[in-house]
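Structure (tokenized):
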């Protein structure tokens, strides 16, 4: 099989969709935060905390969906911390976000060691299993790639539709977009800018945590250190790549995931002739190139990273 044929195999697209799924959750979460005017750089740590919280809940006897719920609640807690510091107090969103990432990551590793002090290898759980959609899963290539996935992958794609509908077809979505564009106008309508921004950050952080939980409860079956591996930072770039629009961000996530799945297969084809680090670099290099091309035309929320105090004009 040559490098071109890989692109037309069902196994390649199955892997790409699976890799894209946690990115979709986290990207939608970051998009909601930024649409409300808050840059959430705590995403990497929040995904790590969500990955551990979901996995540990199941490991301690909870069911899988309870694990997803616990991960979301943990994400909301860190989102509350982030929003308290950046919205009413107006502290630097860059500094607070990095601080939340360090806190969430370090606290997660500490709790892991505290709860499992004697463990030498990560304990395993029974993760979500693929579920074939009757009829659709029999379609050539597309059926196996899109309709033979785990429930969380289906939820990720449904989420994109819900976020797009919520942002562009509901009064709440209009208010979220407005506080990211012109918070003064929102306040003039009697809506609390602080409440809207804090709510958006908490909701977005919950989705980020579910993205992390996907890795331990759907892609893999255990938790290990550094498993997020920069995915949070990738999601921040995907929001820009998608011009702060859910549909375009989804395409960006799938594109990056396809690059990632492709480089793994190229490593196998090369037979070790080319250093594997070159292939590991490939999806990031191509994503940076795509980001440069797209970002020049992107229109970002005008009040993004701009603190707002009640009564300001």
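Design, position by position:
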């Amino acid at each position: 099989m040559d490098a071109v044929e890989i692109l037309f195999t069902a196994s390649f697209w199955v892997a790409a969709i699976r890799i894209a799924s946690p990115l979709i959750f986290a990207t939608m979460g970051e998009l909601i935060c930024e649409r409300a005017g808050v840059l959430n750089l705590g995403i990497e740590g929040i995904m790590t905390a969500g990955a551990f919280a979901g996995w540990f809940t199941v490991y301690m006897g909870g069911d899988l969906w309870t694990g997803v719920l616990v991960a979301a609640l943990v994400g909301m807690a860190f989102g509350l911390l982030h929003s308290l510091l950046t919205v009413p107090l107006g502290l630097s969103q860059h500094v607070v976000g990095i601080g939340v990432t360090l806190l969430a990551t370090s606290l997660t590793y500490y709790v892991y060691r505290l709860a499992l002090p004697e463990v030498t290898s990560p304990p395993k759980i029974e993760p979500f299993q693929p579920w074939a959609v009757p009829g659709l899963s029999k379609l050539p290539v597309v059926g196996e790639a899109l309709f033979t996935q785990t429930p969380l992958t289906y939820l990720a794609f449904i989420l994109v539709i819900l976020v797009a509908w919520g942002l562009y077809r509901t009064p709440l979505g209009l208010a979220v977009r407005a506080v990211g564009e012109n918070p003064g106008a929102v306040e003039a309508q009697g809506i609390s800018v602080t409440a809207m921004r804090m709510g958006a950050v908490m909701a977005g952080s919950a989705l980020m945590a579910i993205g992390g939980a996907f890795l331990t409860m759907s892609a893999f079956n255990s938790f290990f250190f550094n498993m997020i591996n920069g995915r949070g930072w990738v999601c921040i770039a995907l929001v820009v790549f998608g011009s702060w629009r859910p549909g375009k961000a989804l395409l960006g996530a799938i594109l990056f995931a396809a690059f990632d799945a492709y480089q793994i297969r190229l490593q196998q084809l090369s037979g070790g002739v080319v250093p594997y680090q070159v292939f590991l670099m490939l999806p990031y290099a191509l994503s940076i190139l795509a980001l440069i091309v797209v970002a020049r035309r992107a229109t970002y929320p005008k009040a993004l990273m701009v603190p707002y105090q009640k009564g300001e004009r």
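Reviewer-requested clarification: The CA atoms of residues 108 and 203 lie 20 Å apart. The beta strands are 131-132, 148-149.
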